User: Fold this.
Amino acid sequence: MWKGRFSQPTADLVQKYGESVSYDWKLYKHDIAGSIAHAGAQLRAGMLTEEEFASIRDGLLSVQADIEAGNFIWSQELEDVHMNIESELTRRIGAAGAKLHTARSRNDQVATDTRLYCRAEIDATVELLHDMQRALVTKAAEYAETMIPGYTHLQRAQPVTVGHHLLAYVEMLDRDVSRLLDCRRRLNVSPLGSGAIAGSTICLDRVGIAEELGFDAVTENSMDAIADRDYIMEMLFALAVVGTHLSRLSEDLILWCSAEFGYATLSDAHTTGSSLMPQKKNPDVCELTRGKTGRLYGNLTAVMVAVKGLPLTYNRDLQEDKEPLFDSVATVQLALRVNAEMVAAMKINTARTQAAVSDPMLLATDLADYLVRRGVPFRSAHSLVGRAVALSVESGTPLNELTLAQYTEISPEYGADVHEVFNLERAFALRTNPGAPNAANTARRLAFWQEKLA
Assistant:
């Protein structure tokens, strides 16, 4: 493609080192769509005849059909997806194919392709996030009122419900959807027509091209349009946060499925065994999700480091944005599919959760609130309950089985109704603030998500 300037062919090692077609072939559909829109603008500008445009359009669509049928041979010598498609088009239709690249560069071409790719994959990922939310909402509805200990510092803290716990992840995933859609809005501008750096003296209808490709607008600075990879970094960040949320869910389920907790059981289809220990049932999906999240962080870091020192505009370093992007998209999408399937098949061991949530220590804060309602300042109430907890631990007597005399010996502020605090149903009913895990709040939020995700 540049033989006019050079007297020697590119060395084999340089070709191998610099090729990107082994992975950027994934952009083929977007490259072809962009080329057809570009050819349409050439037609409107009088640079192509109707026959030439039809030949280019039909030739590109025939190339796409061969790619999708697995009949296209990618050439490393042609470096990338763009030149492979253009070269094959020219071979098939002749001189008209050689006109296609007029008024564009591979710089604005690849910038357009990757924006189209990111837009499509954001849409696909959002749908998978909704599927994951649906699986969590369905499971939360099934166990909406199943009580379970909530934890801070991985120590039993206060009672919640399985429904409330799982809905926390639905909220997280909703923020992921919002982040991705916000990223989509920012990236949906067309750089095509920016050329290599400074546009072209052959001015095509950039707005018309943008509209045909579904962009909201065109970029306003040709140098920024070529150099910009913010949208890739932003998308990689959003995908990394999706991984964070799936990893946190994975850690919860790993703990819940352990013999020490025993709160949940994953299906045989979503667990593996041991080659040595026949009793093992390992939560490998959860562990792999937790591990793959590190790759998502690495991909984000790789692109940010590649971009951070680049002067304007295009530098070959930017070729290194594709593999991390493709890998993060594939990793997150597969993770969402398998985790949604796994959650849908999960069972909660309600007898075990009920036994765990019956620990009266979980209501120690409620006991402090009881004293506050009797006029005791919270810090004093906290201390008085701490003394009751210490007595419970020292005597081996559950907190709810300390006698009234023992409580009043600690403080006369404890009344005859002190033991009513340890009624779990009453404790949940008192949590009426929005966002608290009472039955009415959970039911309202379940109804909200069921309607939104329908």
Observations:
- The radius of gyration is 30 Å.
- The chain has three domains: 12-102, 107-200+215-355, 359-452.
